[in-house]
Records
---
Amino acid sequence: MDNDYDALVIGAGVIGCAVARELSRYELKVALLEKESDVCGGASKANSGVLHSGIYSAPKSQKARLCVQGNDLFSKFTQEIGVELQRIGKLVVARSDKEIEELEKLKKVGKENGVLGLKLIDVEEVRRLEPNIRAQCALLVPSAGIVSPYKLTIALAENAWENGVKVFLNSKVTDVSKKENYFDVKNDNLTFRTRWLINSAGLYCDTIANMLGIERHKVYPCRGEYLVLDKSYDHLINHLIYPPPENGSGGLGVHLTPTMEGNILIGPSAEYIDEKDDIRTTKEAMDKLNVQAANFLKQLPKDAYIQSYAGVRCKLIPKGCEASGDFVIEEDEKVEGFINLMGIESPGLSASPAIAQMVVDIIKSRETLKPKDEFKTRRTGRRFGLLDIKGKSKQIETNPKHGHVICRCENVTEKEITDALDNPLGVRTLAGIKYRSRATMGRCQGGFCRARIVQIMEEQYKMGVQDITFRSGDSRLFIGRTKDLRGNDREES
Amino acid sequence: MIEKKVDIAIIGAGPAGLAAAISAKTEGIDNLLIIERDEHLGGILNQCIHEGFGLEIYKEALTGPEYIQRFIDEVKELGIPVMLKSMVMELNDKRELIVSNEEGLHQIEAKAVVLSMGCRERTRGMIRIPGDRPAGIFKAGEAQHFINIRNYMIGKKVVILGSGDIGLIMARRLVLEGAEVPCVVEILPYCSGLIRNRVQCLEDFGIPLLLRHTVVDIEGKERVESVTIAEVDDNWDIIEGTERKIECDTLLLSVGLIPENELSKMAKIAMDEKTGGAIVDENFMTSCPGIFACGNVLLVHDVVDYVTMDAYLAGKNAALYVKDELIKKPKIEIKTGPGIRFMVPQKIALEDVDIYMRVLEPGFDKNIIIMDGQEVLKSKKFKRVAPPEMIKIKLKKNEIEGAKEITVSVE
C-alpha cells in the first residue's frame, strides 16, 4: 500500500523535522505531515534562534538533560546539513544586587546540569566585552550560540526528503485511530497507515493526543513578540545579552539576540493568550520591548526597527505557575507505538538533536533498526551577500545568474531566488522564498525585490496570478489583472 | 574580476543619474559609465504614468515615462555607456567600485562618482503598526509598480495610510481601476502631498482624507480583512474611544521616503541627519573629494524637475572636477534655523547659489530669512509655505559677501 509507513511524524517544526531526518538514517518508510503550506510554519520560525547551554532548567529535568546534550551535538548536527552555527556566547547581566544573587543561582544550576565554562565576570570585564551594555556584573556562558531557526528547520526537512522521507504539506491531521498494531492517520483526503506515530504537533500536540483519548496534558499558548533592528546596528553587541530569568513570567525575559545576518532581535515578551494561532503583534508589547531594550543599551538607536513578529510558546503549565514545566517525551503507556513530544518550548531548538535521538532510541528499544548504506548529508556554503569579493566572484563563475542581484538590501541573487523556488518540497510561496533565500527580509522589506520575484515566478515558473501567494493558498497577493474589476463594472451596466 | 577605469561613474539611471550623465558628457567627458541595477533605464518614473512632470523645465505636463524618455533618448544619442542589471556592491572614498552583474564582478576605478541611487519607501516595520501579518499590505510605490508595470491588481477595497504624493496618486489610480478607496488616513494635521495632488486625486474623486488619524491595527490571517483607524492627539498618541474598524482587503502605505545611502555610508561620506542624504557644497560635492550626490539620494524632492536641475549641476561639476577645472573656493556653513526642516547645500562658497529647503509646518504670509549671525542678509516673503513643497531661493554673491555662517529660518 502506498500510504503505508513504518513511522509517521505529525508536525514539521524543528522537532518533527529533526525526528524525521534522524529516522531517515535507517531502513524505514517515514512520512512527515504538516498542516501549513511549508515546513517551519509555527514557533520554529518565530523564536530567538538561540542555542542554549542548559543553565535555566531544573537539574535532572528532561529540559536540562536534553538541552546540554543537544548543545553538545549541535556543531555536528548543523555541519551535516550545511547550516551555520556561531557560538558567540551569552552574558546574563545583573543590574542590581538582587540580580547578582540570581546570577549565582544560575551558575550553580548550570554547573549541576553539566554546563562547562561558566564564569562570573566583573563590571570591567563586561565593559570590555560589551561597551554598550549597562551591567554591574555578568555570567558568561561560552557554549551558547546563535543559529537561524528557519534555515535549520528547512535544511532538516529538505535533508530528510533527500534521504527518502515523504513530506506532505497542507496536510492537517483530522483523525487518528489505533488499530491492532498500526495507526490510521487521516487528513482531508488521504488515510495513512503507520506502525509508529510521533506527535510533534507543537501547539496542537494536545489536539493530536486527544484524538487517541489521551487527555493528560493541555497546551497553554503564550505569545512572544519581537522587534528587529536594522543591521547597521550590528556593532551594538557581541554576545547574547540576557537578564536573569523571572520565575512565573512565562519566558526567559526580554533579551538582545544578535543574528547571523546582523539584525539584533529584541524580545520576546510573554503573554498568555486564548487562541493558539494568534500571532498578532501589539502596541503594548512593542512599547514595552522598546523600554526593556533601553534598560540594557546605553544608547538605543531611534527609528531603527525594520520589522516586528510574534511566535507562540507551547506551555504545559498555565499562567501564574511558578514551576517552568518539563518536556514530555515518551511512548504512551497505554497506546503502544504512539510517541508523544509535548510541551517542547524553549530550549526545544537546542534540544532538537537530542530529542530526535531519544525518539530513535525508543524505537530501537523495541525493534532492530538497520542503518541505510548511504545517508546523504548537505553542503551549502554561505549565501552570496555574505561572501567576500573573491567568493562572490567565484560564485558568479559557477552560474552567471549569481551576478544578478534581485534583493538589494540583502544582496540576494536571481540564482538564489530560483534555487529557493526549486526547493525539493515544492514550496512556491513568497514566504518560502523569503525563508530560503532571505530576499525581502532586509530594511526595505521587499519594497523593490518583491515585484522582481513575482516577475520571476510569472515568467520563469509560469505561475498564474492566482498562484502567487504569501503563505497558503488563501494568502493571495493579487485579486487578478488590472482592468478585471472595470470589466465587471461594464458587464453589470 | 573585470577591471575598468572610467572618468565618471554614475550610480543609478533614474532622472538624476541620466541628467548628470548628459551634462557630464556635454561638458566633454566621454569615458562615462552609468550603472543601473534594474533592467531598464529611467528608474521609478517608468511606473509614474500620471501626468504633471516637466512643468518647470518644459512648461508642459508630461507623464513620467514621457519625461524620462527624453533623457533616455539623449543618453542613447550621445552614446553614453550603460551597465544594466548591475549592482554596485561596494564603494570607497578612493572612488573604487565593485559592481556585480552576470558577466562577473567588476572593479571600477573612477576619477569622479555621481551618487544618484534615489530613495526607498518607509515600511510597516519602521512605523510599528501592530496586528496580523497577512498578504495585502503594500508600499504605495510597490503597488504602483505592480499595477502599472506588471498589470496585477492588488485589491478591491484599499485603505491608504499616509497622504504623501504617491499615496494620493495611487488613491486615484486604484479608483480608476475599479477599486474602492474608503479613505486616506494621515497622522499629521495637514496633507503631506502637494495641493494639486490632493485636489486632483482625492477631492475630484470624492475620497475622504482623514487628518490626525492613523492605522492602529491590522486584522486578517491570510489576507487583510480589516484595519482599525483612530484619531491621534498632538503627540500622535491614540485618542481612546475613537477607534473605528474599516473592512478592506488591502492596506497601502505611503508613509515617507528614505534616501538610499548605504553606499554613501560605506564610502564614509559625511551625512546630514535631517535630509538623510550627504552633506554637499554648492557644487553638489560631498565630503569625499570627487564624489557628488544629486536627486532623491541627496534629499527627497517634491517634483522631478528640480531633480533634473540639481543633477545637471552635479554632472557638470563632476566633469569639471575630472578636468581639474573645479575652482576651489573657501566655504562657509549654511544652517537650518527655526521652522526649516532641512536644506541643501549645507556648505557654500560666497558666490551666486540656489538653496533648496522644506519648512517644518504649513503657514501663510511667511518670510524666509537668511542671516549671518545677527545680521539679516535677505528676506523673502511667501504667501504660503507648506512642508510638501520645496522652496528654492537664489542667493546672489553681493547679498552674502563677507558672511561667516549663514542661518536660514522662517518667520
Note: The longest strand of chain B covers residues 104-115.
---
Amino acid sequence: MPVLARTIEAAGIATVVVTMMPYWSSLYGVPRTLGVEFPFGQPFGMPKDDAGQRAVLRAALDLLENAAPGIIVAWDRPWPQPIEEARRTWHPPDPSPLIAYWLQQPDNPLRPR
Amino acid sequence: MNGNPVPQQWGTSYEAWIERSQDALRARDWSTAFKEYPWLNFSDSPLTPLRHSLADSRIALISSGGISVGDQNPFDAEDPLGDHSFRVVAAEGPLRSWRVDHAHYDVGPPRVDYNTVFPLDALSALAAQGVIGAIAPEHYTFMGYQPDPRPFYEISAPSIADGLSKHQVDGVLLVPG
C-alpha cells in the first residue's frame, strides 16, 4: 500500500495513507501518512462506530489537503478498549509476514511500550 | 512500465530469496520465509499537491483489505504467493453484500462492518455534508499480501491509476487491512 502511493502520485493524483504501521512509511517514502495504531482490521475504528470512523477519515482528508512531503502524523485518540487486550486479539494466530519480520528486529517497533 | 516503483534489479534479489524460502512459504512458516526477504525501500517522498480545495475535490478509496462485493470472485487468501488481482467497487454505499478474504489480519471486524477498513459510508456522508466535493464513482480493492509485487505493479496498479484518471479523481485514501 505505501508503494502504491508512489504509482498514484506519479499519475498526478494526491494520496494519503492511513496505516497501523506508520514506521513502514519512513522506509517507503510515503507522501502523507496518518498513523493510527489501532488493531489490524480496524484502522478506522470499531465496527458500527460511525462517529469514530468519520473522525479518522476527516483527519486523513485534512492531511491530503495540508500536509508537507513525507509527513507522518500520529492519531492521538486512544483505542476504546484496554490496549493489552486488543494486542492479544488483533492478530491472527500465525503472525503475518510483516509482523513476523518486525518481531525479529532488535528495534522492533511492535514491542509493548 | 511508467509509474512502476519496483526497481528492475530488485528481481534478482527476489529470485534468490524465493529459491531459499519456497519450502518455508509452502509450510506457511512466515517467520523463516520472510527472515531475509528483500524489502523495498525508498529515500524520497514524492508529493503531488491536491489540485483543488478539499470541498471541490473528488475522492476515491483504495483498500488492501481483501474486500470483494456482490458476485465478484473472492480474493485467493490461501496462495502463499498472494493474489495480484484487484476489484472495482462502483458504489457509494451502503454495500448490501461483501466478502473479506485475507490470511494475514483478523478479518472479523470488516466482516461485521466493512467501514473499519474501507470507509465508503463515512466518505459518502462527508460528501453529503460538503466536506469533500464528491465521492468518486469507482473505488478499488486488492489483497495486500504481495511477496512478488511485480505482477501487481505491472498489471493491476496501472489499471487502477487509469481508472482514477478517467474519473478525474483528485485525491485517494490508501488503507491497509
Note: Chain A touches chain B through 65 residues (CB under 8 Å).
